[in-house]
Amino acid sequence: MAGSAATATASTAYAASPADQQVPRANQSLLAKVIVVGVPGLTWYDVKGSPDLTALVNQSHVGSITVKTAGPHTCPVDGWLTISAGTRAWGNVPDQACGDLPGLVDGKVQNWQTYVDRQAEHHTGAPLGRLGESRDRVCGFGPGAAIAVARTDGTVSNWEPTVDLAKLGSTSCRDAVIDAGAMPLREGRDEARKRVAELVKQAKAAAVDSWVLLVGVSQVTANAHQEPLVAMQLPPDNGPRWLTSDSTRRPGLIQLTDVTATVLRGEAKPIDPAGAEKDSPLDGNEIFFTGDQHTDASAVIEDRLDTNERFEHPRPVLIAVAMTLLVAQLAALGWFLITRSRRARSTSEFTLLAQGGFFIAVFLSTATVWWRWPSPGLSLYCVVLAISAAFAGLAKAFLKQYAGLGILLAAYAILLVDGVLGTPLQFGSMFADGPVIGGRFYGFGNSTFATLAVAALVTAGWVAQKLLDRSRMQAALAVLIIGGLAIIVDGKPGWGTDFGGIIALTPAVLLLAWLTWRGSISLKALIGIGIAGVVAVSAVAFLDYLRPADQRSHFGTFVARLLDGDVGDVLIRKLQMSASFFYAPAGWFMLAGVVLAMIATVWPNKVPFESYRRYYVSRPMIRPTLLALSTCGLVGMLLNDAGVALPAIMTGFALPLLVAHLLAIGVETPATVSPESHLVQES
Fold first, then answer.
1. N or C: which end of the chain has fewer CB within 10 A?
2. pTM of the model
3. 427 C-beta neighbours (distance < 10 Å), count
């Protein structure tokens, strides 16, 4: 199975960068009619277990669809409301089971106003009814389709409770949405699979000049196993290939809001949603196909199931690996504190370096295609620990006291290359949110940015230290070059595409460069650095905004919303996400740790460890580098939706390497370096 050529081709296409292997978009066009057949809970296991559905695979462009909506669960009503709005909507009440779909009373969806009010309550900005208002003669068949094609007031026209094939094929249906019914949890699932396959064939036969898009639209229950669902499109133009969209930029992956964009074909009307002055733009983009042709249905199905494994395990395994490393570090540190032996010191240093190696292993592990190995979860756990230990061992053996620096340099180089290549190491890694929760589909996420920021700033500080005696100007230029490369790769659309990241990293790099050049900084210069950072970030965002709407990243999308006066809901949602970390004790522990770390960078004399205080004044560039790290973490915490988690991740990467360095060497304090240097001076 894993060794088949078709599977290898499929997986290569899935992991490829957005520019790879695409069929020219100019050669693709939607046919006269789009027919969406929505099935809550339709998984690739259903396709594997049904000869009828399997037979459709080689007749289709295929992919997986992420059905994450605005709420914590994606019940059927959430999925159909999201198709209606073209933006992630919130339908079900949190912490309640998925209820039955609302019926129609006097031609209107029951409790429609309740759903509209729910969007305002949760600041989704989802304009319910956009599909029905924007597209004339959209037919609906079945209960869920009534929700999808309803107008803004909840009224429904051109709808039938069951599929009318004659009407479906007629000109009275410009496009159509069909609710094929949710997949039964146990009994009757085989029959449901046959019914879905037959319905797809009937729809294709009834409307010859049409796209039939079979998609899973939601999970069936609130506590259902979260996974990408089935997406197939018939007939396959130019041979069966892989579905994608500009929303995901990943061959073989689309998202639920892409369905609405595909039906509307750029004809979305502005709709006033409840609780917002303006409607949110479409979250999705038109679906198209890309990659190599596939000819082996069984290989395609196994590839889809392998891909689901790729997204299922990283987060749970991340916790297991982190706890393993923490226990090892505490055990080794305890051994050292009790015995003070050379072996205990070396072991403790190794465990701390392994923690640093972990921040590389989370990315390199994706190159091992662990999801195809036996016991994928256990395989990922072992692979990540092995890579972490390998980096720790090699760095310690060859670089001695500079082992931590070697790990940081490796992280910097790997992430720069990964960004330029289109971030293939991010997709499905432990640090990527992934399609299951509808997070980033491309670019650098918050955890990756935190890793890159630490690696770039420390690398820049180390190079500047080497050049400082030769020329402060050269040292400052080196900081700008090293930090600038990280900013470019992190922020460039199509590479890191990380708007929040460059907001935090740009002022940190400018501060480090200034302190390298001048040795201290005035309040005026500090304000100037802040303004320069804002101007640089704004310029990047505005240039992205000037691109065509369907080619913009979230930089340009944010500017568009800002110019339209539609950023309120976005900012509120991000603030809520940032504040959500404090709903649990872990958020407060992270905050306490971050505050202590920042205090240590500004007031080293308050740190109760002599080795750190001596180290702090041992080199001129140590203080500026630590201040730059704190600046990046503080700005990121205040302006990024990751909140306190971002500086906590930075601390989790930098602190173990610093402690390992202090264990490895004894620090002498040069008399020529004052602990008061590089302070902010008011002038």
1. C
2. 0.85
3. 26
